[in-house]
Design a protein that fits this description.
Blueprint (H helix, E strand, L loop, with lengths): L9 E5 L23 H13 L4 E4 L25 H10 L5 E7 L5 H14 L4 E6 L4 H5 L9 H19 L7 E4 L4 E3 L9 E2 L4 E2 L14 E4 L4 H10 L2 E4 L4 H17 L8 E10 L3 H12 L6 H10 L24 H14 L3 H11 L3 E5 L1 H14 L4 E5 L5 H9 L1 H6 L12 H5 L8
Parallel strand pairs: 1-2, 1-13, 2-3, 3-4, 4-9, 9-10, 10-11, 11-12, 11-13
Antiparallel strand pairs: 5-6, 7-8
Length: 444
């Protein structure tokens, strides 16, 4: 089905280490031994750029997952995460056009540091940087930052809202034309076009200004992933793009519609936010080959591999529930982790009549994200369906192992999407905002 050229699919490549499946590191073709080598990240970024992806995305976690039961004493996945803000410059230096986005927490950072780091990266990459805003939920992460008590769900979002407000003020503390650098006159900057922000709030008191000129994009692109009630309010007011998990087109449409409605109430337009649900893709020359690849990777899962990840996502111990009972109904106030992920998993369990054990197995494969399996045209069909319906604006693609399965997608699926008029055949802009079709924000 052809669509108007004015609306084309946006694609983000999720750069897991070395893939987005718990067993990715065990895959024979995974670059497991290279995930602390700069060449791994450069290679992933270069392949994504060759495939004309909008961006490469790196997530972050600020602690090892702590065991809550005897079954969790074995570490089933790569237990560490690289600092994405250290890796982005390595990837930027090896590429020219693909966008680069990284996670940074509003719970254990300060607005000035984040504004300065992301602002400088936007300069160094010539306008290709995005910030995935997370509020950080887990107790192990809190203990790594001398936090005697982690913030409640609503408090995390209240702090995050003010954090982003301050960060935007800092990015806007320089006028676009404040930097002169006139050697003849000796004037380097016009101080009348640089202002303090004098922010005094509940969580932050920041004078400013930022000691860095306004960046090429005005502000780096803001991504957000929480879709709980508080997360939707936050996304509607703040995000340029939303990462989300959804198992059905109807779920994805409900989330995007709800956030757009709140955005309109806050004076934003429907076209001001992009929705990019996560999708784990298994591709084969035939559907049978793709399913064989999925079965082979799932066969590498440890018996309790999904339990630790489920605990990490929800920040709640489910070991007291019999594994073959229905997936439990919990009071959301007890889920101090990602509440929207619990709701998605509960809905999936009710819809498909799944036990706790079966949900845990699915979490081990895709962390609750949709899984697409098939030959190149079948994969393109499934991606096209949600996109053409208007439920989503594109996808955050997750890969069984890296860099090989990303290269397969670029070689096999991207040409099909291009043939159908769904995806670009050339980069028409230079910045991440250009790729996503987002306006450069004026200085507030």
């Amino acid at each position: 089905m052809a669509i108007p050229k004015s609306r084309q699919m946006h694609l983000a490549a999720f750069c897991g280490q070395p893939g987005n499946h718990i067993a990715s590191w065990r895959h024979p073709l995974a670059a497991t031994n290279a995930i602390l080598d700069p060449s791994f990240y450069q290679n992933v970024a270069q392949i994504a750029e060759r495939g004309l992806f909008d961006l490469v995305f790196l997530a972050d976690i600020l602690a090892l997952t702590e065991p809550r039961s005897a079954e969790q004493q074995t570490i089933w996945e790569v237990p560490f995460r690289i600092d994405p803000l250290t890796v982005l410059p390595v990837m930027a230096a090896a590429t020219e056009r693909v966008g680069l986005a990284a996670t940074a927490s509003t719970s254990y950072n300060e607005p000035f540091n984040i504004a300065r780091r992301f602002g400088l990266l936007d300069h160094l990459s010539r306008g290709r940087i995005g910030w995935n805003i997370v509020t950080t939920a887990s107790e192990p992460e809190a203990r790594n930052f001398e936090a005697t008590q982690k913030l409640s769900h609503n408090e995390r979002y209240a702090r995050a809202t003010e954090f982003v407000e301050v960060t935007k003020k800092l990015w806007d503390s320089w006028s676009d034309d404040a930097l002169i650098a006139d050697k003849d006159s000796g004037a380097y900057a016009d101080r009348t076009k640089i202002r303090t922000i004098d922010h005094v709030g509940t969580y932050f008191n920041v004078r400013g200004p930022l000691n860095l000129p306004r960046s090429p994009q005005g502000r780096p692109v803001l991504f957000q992933a929480g879709t709980s009630r508080a997360g939707r309010e936050f996304a509607a007011r703040t995000a340029d793009a939303v990462f989300l998990a959804a198992q059905t087109r109807e779920e994805a449409a409900a989330v995007s519609s709800a956030i757009r409605a709140i955005a309109r109430q806050n004076g934003r337009t429907d076209d001001s936010i992009r929705f990019l649900p996560g999708v784990l893709v298994f591709i084969g020359r035939t559907t049978e080959e793709a399913r064989r690849k999925q079965d082979e990777l799932n066969g590498l899962l440890g018996e309790n591999a999904g339990t630790a990840l489920l605990t990490e996502l929800l920040n709640i111990d489910l070991s007291g529930f019999p594994p073959d009972c229905p997936f439990p109904e919990l009071d959301l106030s007890a889920v101090t982790g990602i509440q929207s992920r619990y709701r998605l998993l509960k809905d999936m369990a009710d819809r498909d009549n799944l036990t706790l054990r079966q949900v845990t197995q699915r979490v081990a494969s895709g962390a609750g994200h949709r899984i697409v399996v098939g030959d190149p045209r079948a994969v393109a069909d499934q991606l096209e369906d949600w996109f053409v319906s208007g439920a989503v604006d594109g996808y955050t693609l997750m890969f069984p192992y890296l860099p090989g399965s990303l290269a397969e997608f670029v070689e096999l699926v991207v040409p099909v999407l291009q043939e159908r008029g769904l995806f670009r055949t050339v980069y028409e802009g230079h910045t991440l905002r250009d790729h996503l079709g987002l306006e450069r924000p004026a200085r507030a």
